[in-house]
Structure formats: C-alpha cells, structure tokens
C-alpha cells in the first residue's frame, strides 16, 4: 500500500502491484531543484523502471520533438538472492508498503520475502541530502523473521543499470529511446564511479555503499559489462538476525568532481539525515498550509501539493540564466521537459508570495531567451518577442506539429504550436505581478521593462484591422481551451494582448523605461482603444464570449452531477479529446473566461462574474488540471465557498485522486498544486494589494474550522490565520499584528504596522 503521511496524519492511496507501481513511484517522488528521483517501489513494472532520475537542464534531441529532458539511470536495489544457489527471494505475506513522510521528505518501503521456509523483511529509507546538491542517501535493512529452518547467505546487488529510457512524447511505451551510454568507471572495495555520457553532457555518478552494525557481511563493487556498475553485499544470517547498509550517491554534470573523489573519505548517514530533518522542519515552519476541518483528506491534499512545490523550488541559489520549470517538474518526461504558460500564471504566482527569488529565476529564464523569442516572432511574421507555447531548454518552440498513433498508424495535427498567441502576454503578467508584490524596481530597469516592451511590440503586430468590425481583430487562434482551434477573436487572447499593450503604454514616462517613438505610441493606443472583444447575453447579463461564434455552436450536455475526474459526458467526447479533434459544440476543456476573471477580478462586476461562472462551469470538462484553481478563485470571490473548497481539494489532490492507476506516465501536475494554493489564498482569503499594502477579504467554508498559510511580503514572513468570514489574524514571528477594516471590505494591517 502506498501511504502519504504528515506527522500523525496519514492516508492510504493505492495498493502496490506491477500495474500501479509507476503511479506509486510518481506520487512518492523525491526532488529538489537539481534532481528528481523515483524512490524504491516494489513490484516495479518495465514502465516504472524507465523513469528513474531527471536532472535539471540535461536535455537531448528528442523523439517526436526537437528537445526532451533525459530519463537517466539512478542507483537502486537491483536483486536479492541466495549466494550459493542464485535462487531469488520470493515475495511473501501481505503486499508491500511504501510511505511518503511529507514532513520529513523521506520515502520508506517495506516488503516481506521468503526463501525455503525462512522469512525476511526488507526496509529501504531514502531521502535527498540537500536542496543545493544532487546527492541521495539510502538506509537498507534486511531482517530475518522468526526461527530459521536453515542457514542462508544472501546477497543484495545495488547499482546502476540501463533500463531508464525516454518514451515517445513522454507517454507512448511503443517507441522508446535511450539518450545515454555508460563510459569510464573506477571501482574500489566499497565504492564506484561511473561516467554516463549523454548527447551533450557527461554525468559522473559517485556511489558509496557501507555496512553498519555487523561484521557478518561484506561489500564488493564490480563492473557489469555495458550495464553500469554494481555493489554486491553478502550477508551471513547464520548468527545475525539483521544486516544494515547505508548508500550515498551523487551525480555531477560535466565532471564537476574527479573520479578519485568518490573513493575517498567516509560519510555519516546519521548526521546527514539529522541535518535533512532539521532543514525540512524549518521549511515547513516557513511555508506550512493547514486546513482545520473534519475532512482530513483536504488538509493532507493541500500539504501534498505544498510538499511537491517546495521540493522543486526551495533552497538553491538560482542559476545566472534563470530556471526552466518543466510542466511536470522533475517528475516525468511527459511534455518533454518543456515549459508552458502555466508556469507564469500559476507556479510564478505561488513563488512570488512564498519565495520571490524563485519567481524571479523563472522570469529570468524567459529574459535570457528573449532573442529566441524575437527570432520566433520574425519567423512567424510578427514583430517583438513571441514566446513559444511549449519552450524547451534553449528557449525555442518544442511542441510537436504532428502526433503519431500506434498501432492505428494515424497522424494527428497539433495546432497549438502555430495558433497559441497569448504566451508573451502571460509572461508580462508574471513580470508585472512580481514587480507589484516585491517592489523590485532594479529588476524592472535591468530587464522587466525590456520584456514588457518587446511583448507589447509583438501584441501590436498580431492585431489586424477589420473593416467589417471597425476594430482590431485576431483570427485563427487557440486560447487556453484546447478543444477549439482556428477560432477568431478568442476573448482571452484579445484581452491579454490588449492588456499587454496598455501596460507598456502606462510606463512610457517612467524613469528607466526604454523610449517609444511618439508615432508608435499613438498607434499602440489606437489599437488598444479599438480591440474587438466578443460578448453574449445570458439571463439578461452581458458576459464575455469564449470566442467569436461560440454561442452559435450547438449546446452541450451540462455537467450538473460532479463526478470523479474529468467530466466527459460520454466516450465520444473522451475520444475526441484524445484525438485532438476540434469540438463542434460548446463543451470546453478549461474555461478561458473563468481563468481571465481569476487574473483580473476587479475588471469584471460581480454580476458578470456570477453569470459567466454559472454559464461556463457546467460546460467545462475540467480535463486539464489547470482548470480547478481558477474556478476555486472565482467561486470564492462570488461567495460560493463550499464550491471553492471542492475545487481546491480537486486541484491539490489531482494526482492522488484523478490520474489513472495503470501504467501511469504523465507525472505530477505542479501547476494544479499552485492553483490549489491560489484558490485558498487569492480566492478564499481574498489576498490582494490595495494602495501598495496587503489586503484580505477572508471567507471560511461552512465545514472548515479555520485555515492558515504564510506569505513573504517585501522581506517579512507573515503567518495568516482565517478563523471566520471577515475574520483573520496576522502574525510576524510570535507577535500578532493589529488589523483594521478598510475600503471595499478589505482587512489590512493597521497604520504603523505595515
């Protein structure tokens, strides 16, 4: 059974067997900003073994895409068998148990074996040593249970093999590629070093294996042909009931450590683990989110979401050229390790309020890819900077133009590469939000203003004048709703591009902003003043239309009864989505209008937001994990607190509850987790900036007793506790800060404490 736990609270997720082993290994993923490691999960299937280790920045020419993150081998337990006969130990008794302890950032597994009437228990505890080091420690214990019926000498092989591979587009196991080969190695008695040569990198694995607590075992390391290196630990159970082993391994890129370094010195796994636990205690004290409710799954879900986000971001100095945030982090090769707009609209929003340096690193990646964005704009007939819909490690478009299906031999066209035009505006939204929250003027002068200007230049070149509309239009695009393409005047796209223009124009007179010729400024203003936005009337209220002509499409079956996972009405809808078909009805994958209203809540009246939410939500499949967070935000703003709480739970528990269990390959949906945080903090707590000050409009769902979270705001770490509707407490350290009710129902810090 896979169990997630935080302190005394725990929840069983799934029984572990070959078909679920890939899902369990993914959910129990361990990571830091440098590496993502699948922990030891018993009954591993071939698909489970294909994904072992991902290293940040290690990419290669891809299968079906120009670039993909490489699935690399990781040192692990390979075999357990009788020394004298070679007979493997067989699983025995109850199924294996794996526990992810989120408060400790460790994964422990336990499984029972038997050999000729003798039972054994194997336990493995694993953790990543530090957030700024690609190092992993493992404790292994093998215990003989009960009275022996014979004397056994057992051997455990621990090492590196070559079963890690990339699947086509990260999900199709019928086409795989191996982007590495084993190179030079050095072997000592209890340690080995092996080079792994990838297409553009040389990685060096330094592996140490030590026995502890008994002299009745021995360690021998040896080279195993083309399949890497192995450390064999021989354990004599004639007089000893338990053998304990500690392993420690590090992967360095491009020979950062010389080979002899791995074979010298000792490591103290007890000290390393103590430091690891202290570090995570501090991390949780600074970032913990707690929901007090009788529904413990809600609290464990939000803690799981926080844990995976924190793993991927906290504790490492960002690289000079910024940080690429793959859509699935370092948990899967799905989407080939490319980044999408959800980084800016969800993950960036989380980090801006938790660790602003991480948010800046994500934006820095876009800045250092500005020239590639300019090239992409020119190549597609535009000006300025066009950031790709799917950007790879080199900042270039990485989405597939066609998708091959097998064995049907069907080729499907993927239009998002050409038709998604809102990404540059999304990047500008993150830049503006970062500036607004942090007040980092130096960042804006050094790069932020340039990014805004280049993206505005792109936006201006996208709009075309329509004589029939007497307005500027954008034709044949795809918005965030991927069920409809070749559409004209996507409300989301037109609105975001117009906002991008207006943002740049509002800064023209600001010191440090690059100059804008007066003629160009006037032209941009004319475009911004005359952008066509489609509207429809619903129940007497005029609301944004998903895109021009959407309302004329045949209506769809309304999703009134909320079911587990995506809300497909029938198998035909599901197949259409899987086949990337252009839907001919009003069903949407994720509602662009709800997303837009979550981003600009003050731009739409309460009546418009309510009518739009009640119109679009029943027509939304929520197939995308990105859908739940924005719906949680808007529902909260409308006072639909129970609905908001449900969307928060769905977002935070997306992988725990909704993803397939059989041969899972998709990875963890980190932006859904960030969306859950947004639903809680930006939605229910009503977090905003008013007159450059923190402000809240807190709401408490009926079946919640309270909820708590932390924020970092301009150098201050604040603990927020919502204890009722319009009731909250703000603490800094151990001190409660006085609050007052301000304009529009906001609660702010009292003057003198801001």
Automatic annotation (TrEMBL):
Domain spans labelled Glycoside hydrolase family 65 C-terminal: 691-738
Pfam families found in the cross-reference section: Glyco_hydro_65C, Glyco_hydro_65m
UniProt signal peptide: none
Segments forming domain Glycoside hydrolase family 65 central catalytic: 303-678
Domain of life: Bacteria
PANTHER family in alphabetical order: GLYCOSYL HYDROLASE-RELATED (PTHR11051), PROTEIN-GLUCOSYLGALACTOSYLHYDROXYLYSINE GLUCOSIDASE (PTHR11051:SF8)
Record-given protein name: Glycoside hydrolase family 65 protein
Species in which this protein is naturally found: Pseudomonas atacamensis
Organism lineage string: Bacteria, Pseudomonadati, Pseudomonadota, Gammaproteobacteria, Pseudomonadales
């Amino acid at each position: 059974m896979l169990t997630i736990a935080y302190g005394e609270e725990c929840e069983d997720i799934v029984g572990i067997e070959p078909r679920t082993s890939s899902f369990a290994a993914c959910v129990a993923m361990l990571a830091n900003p440098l590496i993502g490691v699948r922990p030891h999960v018993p009954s591993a299937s071939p698909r489970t073994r294909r994904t072992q280790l991902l290293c940040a920045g290690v990419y290669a020419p891809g299968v079906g895409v120009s670039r993909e993150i490489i699935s690399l081998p990781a040192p692990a337990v390979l075999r357990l068998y009788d020394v004298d006969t070679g007979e493997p130990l067989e699983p025995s008794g109850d199924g294996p148990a794996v526990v992810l302890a989120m408060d400790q950032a460790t994964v422990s597994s336990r499984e029972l074996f038997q050999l000729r009437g003798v039972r054994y228990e194997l336990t493995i505890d694993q953790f990543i040593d530090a957030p700024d080091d690609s190092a992993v420690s493992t404790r292994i214990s093998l215990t003989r249970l009960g009275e022996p019926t014979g004397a056994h000498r057992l051997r455990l092989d621990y090492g590196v093999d070559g079963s890690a591979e990339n699947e086509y587009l990260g999900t199709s196991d019928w086409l795989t590629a191996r982007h590495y080969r084993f190179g030079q190695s050095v072997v000592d008695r209890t340690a080995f070093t092996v080079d792994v040569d990838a297409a553009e990198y040389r990685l060096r694995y330094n592996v140490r294996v030590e026995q502890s607590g008994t002299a009745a075992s021995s360690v021998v390391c040896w080279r195993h042909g083309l399949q890497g290196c192995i450390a064999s630990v021989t354990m004599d159970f004639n007089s000893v009931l338990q053998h304990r082993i500690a392993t420690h391994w590090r992967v360095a890129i491009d020979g950062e450590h010389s080979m002899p370094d791995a074979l010298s010195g000792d490591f103290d796994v007890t000290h390393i683990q103590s430091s690891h636990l202290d570090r995570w205690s501090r991390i949780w004290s600074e970032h913990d989110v707690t929901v007090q409710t009788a529904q413990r799954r809600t609290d464990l879900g939000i803690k799981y979401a926080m844990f995976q986000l924190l793993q991927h971001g906290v504790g490492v100095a960002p690289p000079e050229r910024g940080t690429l945030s793959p859509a699935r982090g370092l948990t899967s090769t799905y989407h080939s390790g490319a980044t999408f707009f959800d980084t800016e609209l969800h993950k960036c929003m989380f980090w801006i309020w938790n660790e602003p340096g991480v948010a800046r690193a994500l934006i820095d990646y876009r800045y250092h890819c500005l020239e590639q964005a300019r090239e992409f704009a020119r190549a597609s007939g535009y000006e300025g900077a066009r950031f790709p819909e799917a950007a790879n490690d080199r900042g270039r478009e990485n989405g597939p133009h066609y998708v091959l299906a097998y064995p049907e031999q069907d080729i499907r066209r993927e239009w998002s590469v050409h038709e998604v035009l809102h990404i540059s505006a999304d990047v500008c939204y993150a830049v503006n939000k970062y500036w607004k929250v942090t007040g980092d003027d130096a960042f804006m002068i050094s790069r932020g203003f340039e990014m805004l200007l280049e993206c505005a230049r792109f936006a201006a070149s996208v709009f075309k004048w329509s004589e029939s509309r007497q307005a500027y239009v954008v034709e044949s695009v795809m918005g965030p709703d991927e069920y409809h393409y070749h559409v004209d005047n996507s409300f989301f796209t037109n609105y975001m591009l117009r906002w991008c223009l207006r943002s740049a124009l509002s800064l023209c007179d600001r010191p440090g902003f690059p100059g804008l010729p007066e003629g160009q400024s006037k032209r941009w203003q004319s475009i911004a003043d005359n952008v066509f936005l489609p509207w429809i009337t619903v129940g007497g209220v005029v609301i944004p239309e998903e895109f021009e002509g959407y309302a004329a499409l045949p209506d769809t079956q309304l999703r009134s009864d909320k079911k587990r996972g995506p809300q497909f009405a029938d198998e035909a809808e599901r197949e259409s989505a899987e086949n990337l078909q252009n839907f001919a009805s009003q069903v949407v994958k994720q509602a662009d209008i709800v997303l837009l209203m979550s981003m600009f809540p003050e731009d739409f009246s309460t009546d418009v937001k309510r009518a739009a939410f009640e119109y679009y939500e029943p027509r939304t499949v929520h197939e995308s994990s990105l859908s739940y967070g924005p719906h949680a935000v808007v529902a909260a703003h409308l006072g639909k607190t129970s609905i908001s709480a449900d969307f928060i739970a769905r977002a935070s528990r997306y992988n725990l509850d909704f993803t397939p269990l059989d041969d899972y390959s998709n990875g963890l949906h980190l932006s859904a987790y960030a969306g859950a945080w947004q639903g809680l903090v930006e939605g229910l707590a009503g977090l905003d900036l008013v007159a450059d000050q923190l402000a809240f409009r807190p709401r408490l769902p009926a079946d919640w007793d309270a909820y708590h979270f932390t924020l970092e705001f301009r150098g201050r770490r604040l603990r927020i506790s919502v204890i009722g509707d319009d009731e909250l407490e703000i603490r800094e350290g151990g001190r409660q800060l006085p609050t007052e009710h301000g304009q529009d129902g906001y609660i702010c810090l009292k003057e003198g404490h801001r």
